[in-house]
From TrEMBL, chain B:
Residues 116-168 form the RNA polymerase sigma factor 70 region 4 type domain. It comes from the Bacteria. This is RNA polymerase sigma factor. Pfam families: Sigma70_r2, Sigma70_r4_2. Residues 22-84 form the RNA polymerase sigma-70 region domain. CDD domains: Sigma70_r4 (cd06171). Keywords: Sigma factor, Transcription, Transcription regulation. It comes from Flectobacillus roseus. Belongs to the sigma-70 factor family. ECF subfamily. Signal peptide: none annotated. PANTHER family: RNA POLYMERASE ECF-TYPE SIGMA FACTO, RNA POLYMERASE SIGMA-70 FACTOR ECF SUBFAMILY.
Length: 465, 184
């Protein structure tokens, strides 16, 4: 700009002073025209990204939903199994031929055994032991609130199972205790010590069966089959019987933490890429910008790195999400027509007049950091190789240059082949095309550039779950 | 009251209220610039709209909010130059002799000439002359800068300025103005 206005002539000074701060009235309609063209507020862009993230989360949820649906079903079946077995146990205790009850309180079984022993041994000692056992039973039941109460109720009165979870322990304990003592007496009356066994031997066997394991020794029903076996005269291998019961116990306790789950993989990949540009003049500049050419040297080559997680949604569908880094360069030359006239003499009589043109170059080397979400569909799965197609979106922002901070979006399309190279490792190659959804040039520049990419993505998947 | 720099920062976040306030702050001045560079009011409005959209789209790149005044003015001038380039082939030189001012009071015309009247004179200049005259005389660019901006040589810029001034002087002389003094 001019260094000073003091050394300009009065004519120029006159106009300068008149127009330097000249203002003109503005029609309000103009703002109404401008306002719709203004960029969206930042939070609106955030909302858009949040929406994209929500969609991704939704897809992820659909992928994991079957797992969460499966879990309660399994638990229900587990509970049902337990209840049915309890019921079986209850019935079995009546018929003296069933499996033991897992949830039965230890004190109850001890009390029962004491009662049995008491009945079959010295009546006076037995009476004391019985009272002591009943006292223990009361204490145990009052401490054990829901589970003990409900379990006891379930054992003796299956119909009362609807009371599970209610804090009516005082009443129910009394009822259960009195019922259990009656029941104990009734059951004990049915017990017959085999003639081949003495009372002491019988007691020893009962104690041995109590010490066999948590499962068998802690329930009333655990004792009864053994007593039945003992009562029968047929030779029965007790260990076989107990082993069977133990196996069943193991089967009845599926551990929910080791249920098969959908695999999750970690992936890394690198992709040498070639930029190809869609270039258009910026707005009204099209009338004097022409001869746009991309310089076909090494500047087209870039690199694309990505890392992230791959979630299995179904047998054929996987969701990939991760971060990406892009390094790309671009160099574009074009001509700008000026309003200067250039007169060239063709011969002695004619002259060629044309507008002067200037050659310009637009060169940029940028680094981008972004995030991407892709859906991968495996359409062919062979013994060695599997083939998949991939489609997704990517958003990134330039880390340098005048467009730093501006969000660019891309549509990614790819086809890939993967092969297992280790227990949990897969190698994949994936020719990918990345289509720019918005231009990257600054609006003040003369050109609008969409830097599309074609690359050959090579990477590794590691199953981490 | 929010100061100009805070307003710029809010505009950089694309805050709509700040954008409206920013627009109201600069609308008169920037329309004045557009009026000087354009041939007509309609053209000025086109340039004005395009310039404001560019300003709001690029305000993020403004690193020094304290220099926003110069920056918006520069943006409008560049938009006007782009508009001039884009419409170059549709432009025609106006016959300068047809200019008629409404003010007939020759002896006191300098005092009574409004900016709008002077603007009417400037509008009648050929497009290239008008651009150079505005850039050099009013906006303070030198011939080298003007040459780069308009895509012409420095000498062309000088000769066009000279001719523009000569045409304006002739017209002012017709109105009885032969000497010029700077307003103190």
């Amino acid at each position: 700009m001019n260094a000073s206005n003091n050394d300009i002539d009065p004519f120029e000074g006159f106009f300068h002073d008149k127009f330097n701060d000249f203002e003109s009235e503005v029609d309000d309609v103009l703002w109404a025209n401008i306002e719709p063209q203004l960029p969206l507020p930042s939070f609106s862009r955030l909302i858009l990204w949040h929406l994209a993230a929500a969609v991704a989360l939704l897809l992820l949820s659909f992928g994991l939903l079957p797992r969460f649906i499966a879990s309660p079903t399994t638990e229900l079946s587990h509970v049902t199994t337990g209840q049915s077995l309890q019921n079986e146990g209850t019935q079995g205790s009546k018929t003296l031929n069933t499996e033991s009850n897992q949830g039965f309180d230890k004190s109850v079984s001890n009390t029962q055994s004491i009662e049995i022993n008491a009945h079959n041994a010295n009546p006076e000692v037995a009476k004391e032991q019985k009272e002591e056992g009943l006292e223990k039973n009361k204490k145990a039941n009052s401490i054990a609130e829901y589970s003990t109460t409900s379990t006891n109720s379930n054992i003796y009165e299956p119909i009362a199972s609807s009371n599970i979870g209610k804090r009516n322990t005082t009443k129910s304990v009394d009822i259960v205790s009195s019922k259990s003592s009656k029941r104990a007496r009734k059951d004990a009356n049915k017990k017959v010590i085999p003639s081949s066994l003495s009372t002491e031997e019988y007691d020893r066997i009962v104690r041995a069966t109590q010490n066999t394991g948590d499962y068998l020794s802690t329930s009333e029903e655990a004792l009864e089959p053994n007593l039945e076996i003992l009562a029968s005269k047929e030779p029965v291998d007790l260990s076989v019987k107990f082993n069977k019961a133990r196996i069943k116990t193991l089967q009845r306790k599926p551990n929910r933490y080791f249920q098969p789950s959908k695999p999750v993989s970690l992936y890394f990949s690198a992709m040498p890429l070639v930029n190809y540009y869609t270039i258009t003049p910026n707005g009204s500049d099209s009338k004097y910008v022409h001869s746009i050419q991309v310089d076909d040297d090494n500047s087209r080559i870039g690199v694309y790195l990505q890392a992230g997680l791959k979630f299995t949604l179904s047998d054929k569908l996987q969701l990939k999400t991760g971060i990406s880094y892009t390094k790309s360069s671009q160099s574009i030359s074009f001509k700008v027509r000026t309003d200067s006239l250039v007169v060239r003499s063709v011969d002695n009589q004619t002259a060629d007049v044309a507008f002067e043109e200037q050659n310009k170059t637009y060169a940029l080397s940028s680094h981008y950091l972004g995030t991407r979400v892709d859906l991968e569909y495996t359409f062919l799965k062979g013994d060695a190789l599997s083939h998949h197609a991939l489609v997704g979106i990517e958003g990134n922002t330039s880390l340098n240059g005048t467009a730093a901070g501006k969000i660019n979006s891309f549509l990614n399309i790819g086809y890939g082949i993967s092969r297992q190279i280790g227990d949990n490792a897969y190698l994949f190659i994936e020719p990918t095309m990345s289509i720019a959804l918005n231009h990257q040039s600054d609006a003040s520049t003369l050109l609008l550039v969409r830097p599309n990419k074609i690359g050959f993505n090579i990477g590794l998947n590691f199953k981490i779950k | 009251m929010i100061n100009e720099q805070d307003l710029v920062r809010a505009c950089q976040r694309n805050d709509r209220k700040a954008q409206t306030a920013f627009y109201n702050m600069y609308k008169g001045k920037l329309m004045g610039v557009c009026r000087r560079y354009a041939r007509s009011k309609e053209e000025a409005e086109d340039i004005y709209q395009e310039a404001f959209v560019k300003i709001f789209n690029n305000i993020k790149s403004l690193e020094k909010p304290e220099a926003v005044g110069a920056w918006v003015r520069k943006t409008v001038i560049h938009t006007a130059i782009n508009y001039y380039h884009a419409n170059l082939k549709f432009q025609q030189n106006t016959d300068y002799e047809t200019v008629v001012l409404s003010n007939d009071d020759y002896p006191n015309i300098l005092a009574t000439l409004s900016s709008e009247d002077l603007l009417a004179l400037i509008h009648q200049l050929p497009d290239g002359y008008r651009m150079v005259f505005n850039l050099y005389v009013v906006d303070g660019y030198n011939h080298n800068e003007i040459g780069q901006m308009l895509g012409i040589s420095e000498n062309t810029s000088k000769s066009q300025l000279s001719r523009a001034k000569e045409l304006l002087r002739k017209q002012l002389k017709k109105l009885g103005i032969v000497s010029y003094e700077r307003i103190q």
